[in-house]
Amino acid sequence: MTVKHILERKGRDVVTMQPTATLAEAAQLLAQKRIGAVVLLDGDGKVNGILSERDIVRLIGTKGISALEEPVSKVMTLKVVTCPENTTVIEAMEIMTERRFRHLPVIEEGKLVGLVSIGDIVAERIARAEQEAEDIRNYIATS
């Protein structure tokens, strides 16, 4: 099973912003969309960074509420780890676990084509395990 399968099922829409937005705007967008991260794009539509709710909380924790006036560009993760669609679910899970982040942008031919979260990965693994258990029950019942 690959990341492409997850994107086909959940959709490929990715919430994005420009790095010039403020952290307050980013926090409002995250709350409004009920998501945990936003991808930052440059003027050409290429991934420039990623900002998670954790990034915002850490900054507020160290600088206080005035940090929300800062531009996202000062806080976003610049070295974004991405994957192609043919990445297996296991590989994506390993990347996210090893690097300790919860969102993985999916890139094909230099373009952002989706975003998978650790929740998407876990849901896929559970669905797969349930299907395998059902297949085994059916096999046993028909033997």
Automatic annotation (TrEMBL):
- Give every CBS domain span: 7-68, 76-132
Q: Does the keyword 4Fe-4S apply?
A: no
Which keywords accompany this UniProt record?
CBS domain
Keyword tRNA processing recorded: no
Q: Which InterPro entries match?
A: CBS_dom, CBS_dom_sf, CBSX3_CBS_dom, Diverse_CBS-Domain
UniProt cross-references to Pfam families, sorted A to Z: CBS
Instruction: Report the protein name in the record.
Output: CBS domain-containing protein
